[in-house]
From TrEMBL:
Ranges for domain Phosphoribosylglycinamide synthetase N-terminal: 8-37
Keyword Ligase: yes
Protein name, entry field: Phosphoribosylamine-glycine ligase
Keyword annotations from UniProtKB, A to Z: Ligase
InterPro entries (alphabetical): PreATP-grasp_dom_sf, PRibGlycinamide_synth_N
Enzyme Commission no: 6.3.4.13
Length: 45
């Protein structure tokens, strides 16, 4: 089940991945998750 969830996160777009991370993490960890996604996107550019 966990591997399947990770696969689903990989196949979605950046916005979907950001949303999935925000939903799975606790509210106090959401900022860190969004920052991580932002860094990954910035490095891709």
């Amino acid at each position: 089940m966990k591997d399947n969830n990770n696969y689903n996160v990989l196949i979605v777009g950046n916005k979907g991945r950001e949303y999935a991370l925000a939903q799975r993490l606790q509210q106090d960890e959401r900022v860190n998750a969004l920052y991580f996604v932002w860094v990954m996107v910035a490095l891709k550019i």
